[in-house]
Design goal:
Elements: E1 5-8, E2 17-31, E3 37-54, E4 63-66, H1 68-72
Antiparallel strand pairs: 1-4, 2-3
Bound molecules: zinc ion.
Length: 82
């Protein structure tokens, strides 16, 4: 599953964000005899991101989502249209 990348346009941060999301998941709950729980094989069925804010400057309004291409490509000029 491709993970979403973000960028803060205010400070340039690419790596530290506070993300608030609602996750629907299924997991194998493995209990010890003592009742201690270990969650295994966690499968994310649905994830809905509600809010992303920059960890450095605290700004939520300046955070933009990077497309897969943006995240992979080195910054370069767009090719001229044919
Ligand atoms: Zn920032």
């Amino acid at each position: 599953m491709p993970s979403t990348r973000y960028r803060c346009t205010a400070c340039g941060n690419l790596t530290r964000f506070d993300v608030t999301s609602t996750v629907r998941s299924r997991a194998f709950h493995h209990y010890t005899v003592g009742g201690e729980l270990e969650r295994q094989d966690v499968e994310i069925l649905n994830e809905s991101v509600e809010d992303v804010s920059c960890r450095w400057c605290g700004s939520g309004g300046s955070v933009v989502e990077l497309s897969a291409d943006d995240a992979l490509a080195e910054p370069q000029e767009a090719p001229e249209p044919a």
